[in-house]
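does this look right to u?? 6-O-phosphono-beta-D-tagatofuranose version
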Amino acid sequence: MIEALNDQFRIPGHLQFDLGQGGLPRAIIENDAARGEIYLHGAHVTSFQPRDQADLLWMSSDSNFSDSMPIRGGIPICWPWFSHHPTDSNLPQHGFARISAWEVQGVGQDSTGAVTLQLGLSDSDATRRWWPHAFQLTLSVTIGPTMTVELQCCNTGDQEFGMAAALHTYLGVSHISDVRVEGLAGRSFIDQLDDDRLHIQSGSLEIHRETDRIYIGTEDDVLVHDRSSERVIRVAKQGSVSTVIWNPWIDKSRRMADFPDDGYETMLCVETTNAASDERRISPGQEHRISQTIGLFAG
Ligand code: TA6
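got this back:
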């Protein structure tokens, strides 16, 4: 499989496939600006490292790498529902896109040297066990000085369907106690730890406890100020007006087998989503695109 992928899609010196952790097929992208890694399992980005910088993404050292489990860290793709299924708790948490085998659809390199990998997932007997609709998903990952991840969802059936989505991004930080999040001031948020009550964000956000919030009406860039490393990560987005901020803190970190007990100290999830009131309905033959661009913000 790896040889065939490289024969068809390799870009010498810039994109190649190998077997990553757990023997799962992985694309490695390298250019003058950055290096990135994307697993075909779940179309899961696990690394984005701008040249001479620490990785912008956090990965769990205890993550599973098997074709039946989600990878912990990086950017899980949550689709076609977010969190638990609305009516059937037996269905996979965060949908089935992140535990499905995606196929390589195409690769490319533009005049700036940025490299794009396109992965695809469409309905099958396997997906119809979980969800009855016909669809075509395309995930495009473009790596240059910044990384853009775009999820395109096409309704290829004859019935309208509703969907939720999340680019469930685990950002790496030096220490969570030294982090300040800008870009959400004045926005309402659903506090998933306070019986889903609505609150208003006052000013910037700091994390001093388990935090699990769906911000709504969000269109601005989110800036994650990491005081210890003196870097600012920017998350800009399109096709989304909701943002999830999550840190499991101490107790929940201990309860997750694929998450180190102290993992909460060096990660923060800033998730570009179509969640809550921002879920989307797609008519037959129509599509929706949600995308985010992350990179170091020069101030
Ligand atoms: O995005 C926040 C959240 O919905 C949290 O409630 C927590 O469950 C997190 O996602 C991780 O979910 P997972 O299924 O990957 O453990």
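The chain has one domain: 2-296. idk if thats expected tbh
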